[in-house]
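::Amino acid chain::
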Amino acid sequence: MLLEFEKDGGQIMASITIRNLEDGLKARLRVRAAERGRSMEEEVRIILREALNLRTEQGNLAQAIRARFAPIGGVELDIPPRDPIREPPRFD
């Protein structure tokens, strides 16, 4: 494994080269990346972040849920209608 560092916008970024990767593993990685519309390199970064439990970026809960269900085509939920807001209680 070759490990290199470069500076990108004030952050130090590491580059690695992985040798002797099995052909079957590389093929599965290529398919997984293509299914998600990513490059193999980006897919590996995401796999490493998830495996090491690192947060990729701050987002809101709705974005996180949408991203989680995007690979299966999303989920449509029936949202029930809301009732009008009640009058607050009075303490006269």
